[in-house]
Amino acid sequence: MASKMRKTLIAGNWKMHNTAKESVDLASSVKNGVRPGYAGQVMMAPSFTSLHQVAAALKGSDILLAAQDMSWEDKGAFTGAVAPGQIKDAGCTHVLIGHSERRSIFGESDQVINKKLAAALRHGLVPVLCVGETLAERESQKTYRVLETQVSGALAGRKAEELSTLIIAYEPVWAIGTGKNATPDQAQDAHIFIRKLAGRLYSPALADGMRILYGGSVKADNVDEIMAQPDVDGALVGGASLKADGFLRIIHFQEVITK
User: Fold this and answer.
1) What is the Cα–Cα distance from 116 to 21, expressed in whole angstroms?
2) Residue range(s) defining the domain that contains residue 83
3) Who has the most CB within 10 Å: 6, 71, 72, 215?
4) Among 74-78, 109-113, 196-200, 218-222, which stretch is predicted with the lowest mean pLDDT?
5) 71 has which bridge partners?
6) Around 133, how many Cα atoms within 13 Å sit in the side-chain half-sphere?
7) pLDDT range class, residue 256, cuts 50, 70, 90
8) Is 20 within the bounds of a domain?
9) What is the C-alpha to C-alpha distance for residues 127 and 167, in angstroms, rounded to an integer?
10) H helical segments located in 90-218
11) Is 168 helix (H, G, I), strand (E, B) or coil?
């Protein structure tokens, strides 16, 4: 399991699913299902249209609220974009930056992601930086090169003291929504590479304290093996976070591992 110095984080990315009412119902079910004394952290990332309502539903709990994306601009004539201050006002403490779907479908470059990450930090939001390779890149032995390019590109210009809250999510593109997932060893190898890279770019202390999540078809039936890896500090869960029972099983993985 992850180092005791790093608190586990299980995050649900709901993507483009759920009305406001459905989001509140799901959030409430998860909130009520997290067992007292739970040692890790839980986070939910609903659609923009549900953020206010989910924030209200989560009031009084320790569950964190994240936006799935945001603009790097503070305000202005950017139709359709959502500013950092707006998601913070809606109750968010965290924001996903550079999810693979933002990169592949919407064409976000490392330079755009760099600007978004800087904006998140400027507004006191915790960035969850998503990185990962495609199947073609893995098969051509470019996984580590891609990870180094994405991580260093996103963090360019940032100082170590700015990154104390940074979370990185390794999500191999070929395992997202496909039913495939990296083996526990593949996940561990990528995570330790990212941790060592952070140590080279900044310091071993920063790297040792940084939480690195795994994302890519995480489900109730594979979470235990994945979370047993020493450098996997949590999970970024997609489809399996849309049903309360399944997501709660993932949240409570540690009870199975430690029995």
Assistant:
1) 29
2) 9-243+251-257
3) 215
4) 218-222
5) none
6) 21
7) very low
8) yes
9) 6
10) 100-104, 110-122, 135-139, 143-155, 184-201, 204-209
11) strand
Give the chain's domain count.
1
Q: Round the CA-based radius of gyration of the chain to a whole number and report it.
A: 17
Beta carbons within 10 angstroms of residue 238's beta carbon = 23
Q: What are phi and psi of 114, to 5 degrees?
A: -60, -45
Rounded Cα distance, 182 and 29, in Å: 29
Query: What is the number of helices (H) and of strands (E) in the chain?
Result: 12, 8
Residue 4 lies in a domain: no
> Catalytic residue numbers?
99, 171
Residue type, 93: T
Q: Over the stretch 147-162, which tens digit does the pLDDT of each residue have?
A: 999 999 999 999 999 9
Decide if pLDDT at 259 tops 50: no
- Terminal Cα distance for the chain, rounded: 13
Nearest C-alpha neighbor of 66 from the set 83, 46, 42: 46
Q: How many CB atoms lie within 10 A of CB 177?
A: 13
Instruction: Evaluate if residue 258 carries a pLDDT over 60.
Output: no
User: Residue 237 sits in a domain of what CATH number?
Assistant: 3.20.20.70
Residue 132 burial class via C-beta count within 10 angstroms: exposed 0-12, middle 13-18, buried 19 and up: buried
